[in-house]
Design a protein that fits this description.
- It contains 16 helices and 15 strands.
- It has about 375 residues and is of the alpha/beta class.
- It folds into two domains: about 240 residues, Rossmann fold (3-Layer(aba) Sandwich); about 120 residues, Udp-n-acetylmuramoylalanyl-d-glutamate--2,6- Diaminopimelate Ligase, Chain: A, domain 1.
- The protein is globular and about 70 Å long.
Length: about 375
């Protein structure tokens, strides 16, 4: 296997900590030092079908943004399908999987000056089929950066747990990146996180401030998740959702919850609440609700539909009941998509300003 091309492995302490966001921004930052940066996600658990291949969705994103000039199948060699673990436990074939990852890395690193390897979660993910992130990082000869969510106590505890798993495999951690740190706590958390990590023998490589655009789902992503029908202007689907209210109360009581960034979920036959939500909406207001989801597949009457079509916020019609809709929205993982041009630009800028890439390179 290629041992000469510089490389780094990006892991996280848990789901939705910002590993892919960090990887996306780091590639842009690394391109200032290396003209040809490659990418691989050896083990992927969320995949899409591309030309009859199962490709990890993060790999599709990276290739769409950076045109990496490498077959998608090499950048995403192993897709963990629903029955993958069962099949492995029935007939373990670790040598075959390791060989596949190594060969894929060789092809990805061909004529590249640097390769960024993205993990699939914390250090232990994949242990059940003997391909934990720690084991994969060891297989590829990578040093590791751990991404964790902003804070002091719990994040450092989680970093220490991951540190133990990586070190058990003989993998070196070069540092930690704190993500999603609230702006008013940035200086305080940076200071004390650096102290806490130093006690563990770890460097703080960067602190990324929380950004509403990166953490909140859009109405369009909610529409996709719910397979919902849009009842009015599609130009409003970019609005961000910060909070959810289930309209099970009277219209009068519901009105006090109609604030900036709020998604209202209510049965489609609660026309009184829909009309109440319409009260006070202005086409150019920056303080209005994010949108409305009408549930139960209950389409309002023609008179209310006419009002909905004129509303300056998106209104969706979903077949699921209100509880299930609220659960799906709550569990929705905010992902960056290739057409999120503004978001991708923000990510590049944030990582470029917030992460010490020079220190990373000096540690490799």
């Amino acid at each position: 296997m290629n041992a000469s091309t510089p490389r780094v492995f990006i892991a996280a302490t848990r789901q939705n900590d910002g590993k892919t966001t960090t990887s996306l921004g780091l590639i842009a930052a690394l391109q200032h030092f290396f003209p040809r940066v490659g990418y691989i996600k050896p083990v992927g658990q969320r995949f899409v079908e591309v030309e009859e291949q199962k490709i990890d969705e993060d790999t599709v994103l990276m290739d769409a943004v950076y045109q990496l000039n490498c077959p998608l199948g090499d950048m995403s060699p192993i897709a963990v399908e629903p029955d993958f673990t069962r099949k492995y436990l029935q007939a373990a074939n670790n040598d075959v999987l390791v060989k596949k990852i190594r060969k894929a890395f060789d092809r990805v690193s061909w004529e590249k000056d640097f390769v960024l390897c993205e993990g699939s979660g914390h250090a232990g993910v994949g242990s059940v089929f003997d391909l934990s992130n720690a084991q994969v990082a060891k297989t590829l000869g990578c040093k590791v950066i751990i991404v964790t969510r902003g804070g002091i106590g719990k994040p450092i505890d989680e970093v220490a747990l991951n540190q133990a798993l990586f070190e058990k495999e003989g993998v070196e951690i070069i540092g930690v990146i704190l993500n999603k740190v609230m702006g008013d706590k940035l200086e305080y958390i940076t200071d004390f996180a650096r102290r806490g990590l130093k006690r563990k023998g770890l460097e703080l490589l960067g602190v990324i401030p929380h950004q509403r655009m990166l953490s909140s789902p859009t109405m369009d992503s909610i529409r996709e998740e719910l397979s919902a029908e849009l009842l009015n202007d599609p130009r409003n689907l970019h609005t961000l959702v910060d909070d959810v209210v289930v309209g099970a109360m009277s219209a009068q009581n519901a009105m006090k919850y109609f604030k900036r960034g709020v998604l209202l979920i209510t049965p489609g036959d609660r026309e009184d609440i829909v009309l109440a939500a319409c009260t006070g909406l202005e086409a150019d207001s920056q303080e209005q609700m994010a949108g409305i989801v009408l549930t139960g597949g209950l389409r309002p009457g023609d008179a209310v539909l006419k009002v909905i079509r004129a509303m300056p916020i998106p209104v969706l019609l979903a077949n699921d009941d209100s509880y299930l809709v609220a659960s799906k929205v709550h569990d929705l993982i905010v992902k960056t998509r290739p057409n999120d041009v503004e978001k991708i630009s923000l990510i590049r800028d944030l990582i470029g300003r917030s992460v010490n890439v020079q220190k990373i390179l000096e540690s490799l």
